[in-house]
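Deviations from the work plan: none for this task. Representative record:
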Amino acid sequence: MNLKLKIWRQANAEAKGKTITYSISDISPDMSFLEMMDMHNEQLIQQGEDPVAFDHDCREGICGMCSMFINGEAHGPDRLVTTCQLHMRKFKDGDTITIEPFRANAFPVIKDLAVDRSAFDRIQQAGGFVSVNTSGNTQDANAIPIDKHDADKAFDAATCIGCGACVASCKNASAMLFVSAKVSQYALLPQGKVEATDRVLNMVNQMDEEGFGNCTNTGACEVECPKGISLENIARMNRAYLTASLKG
Amino acid sequence: MITTTIARKLAMALSGLFLILFLGQHFTINMTSVFSEKTFNFLSHFMGNNLVVQFILQPLLILGVVFHFVMGFVLEIKNTRSRSVKYQSYKGSANASWVSRNMIISGIVVLSFLGLHFYDFWVPEINYKYIEFLPQDPDRYYGELVHKFHSPFRVAIYALSFVFLSLHLFHGFSSSFQSMGLNNKYTRGIKLFTVAFSLVIPAGFIFIAIFHHQNG
Ligand code: HEM
Ligand code: SF4
Ligand code: FES
């Protein structure tokens, strides 16, 4: 396959970036999108140019690092996949592919396609944990019976990999899907109930402080989420937040 | 409390649902004009002269409308500011419906309509009752209504506005339940009801306008 790539290039956080168009040839349809990007970078290096910076780590859809906005969608046109799981067979010979960083004021660009998603870490630190005594007499989690429905829903929420595709896709740059998944994965379990009130209040406040937008229920996040996190989690968080606010 | 994003969503949902309640009531009264001039005049006279309606419900309604659209603009501004550098390519239609992404547009059309509607009915009404203190005439309402729908241009504007109201409700109604934290086995039912409501009510309003245009 021969392709045209329109890639966002930005030297650093302060620099004014711009889109640069490159041509690339001999791409196999079996390559992953990141392998295609690697090949492109090797060519750039051979030509003495600066390779395109992009985030990646596991390359198997579990770390959430591979943020890229491809042809107008987070992680490209395929559903329920990350960029590393996207294959070049989803494109046609001669296509022009636009590749941009995830855009949100809360996710500033570090360089080229790499963005700073530490806002998510700070939201987690604000309450995305359970305080467990780890001094050696920790209770076995399986000793506490848990309703199967709740356990399943908590597990589904816990599959969120913190990739940020929800923020990138949302027209409002809202982080509600991520935060609601992180609230729900604890809220549904007995271990998480103890700190439930403070957790939801603190995490939502941190989310707002980071400058994410205001959810308007468009549902774009759910469609683009590589892990299929459901909007039900957002409703659960709204509910939890409102009842927690009443407690004060 | 209205400073956090979730509180703002709840405020939007509650004020929106309040307006929907009012819409249902307004629709019911208007519909009587198709069947019975007498009933319509009776109800209009009651609404126009009952002290509770005039001095408690009416101000509450105006407050509700103003609150809702001011909040709508606040949301819109906050949200555009959350992504200062725009995408070069953004495929919004790939993952969300047009109506859900353009509530501000359907909202602004409805707002402009409300302006016209105020000018058409509310201003003359206030003028009649509280400025010129014209004598009570419990039978004048039907005639005033029919008179307004003489102009085909006005009927067209009314019809177009209700199409946008339909779009607004198509997303807004079920969305407000999600905002209030309700997403469960009833959600499918709420979505079905939303579709029916957002089609039937605006279509009914359009029907009333055309009916009086034809028969007036
Ligand atoms: C009779 C008139 C109106 C009714 C019945 C109505 C109803 C609603 C409802 C039920 C919602 C959903 C709230 C939620 O998702 O939580 C909503 C949202 C919204 N409305 Fe209205 N509305 C009306 C007029 C207006 C006007 C005049 C504007 C002016 C700009 C407006 C702008 C908005 C905006 C921006 C949203 C937010 C989108 C969202 O959160 O989904 N609306 N409306
Ligand atoms: S909710 Fe989905 S899209 Fe958002 S961070 Fe988690 S895995 Fe990514
Ligand atoms: S590189 Fe880990 S999810 Fe894509």
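Chain A touches chain B through 48 residues (CB under 8 Å).
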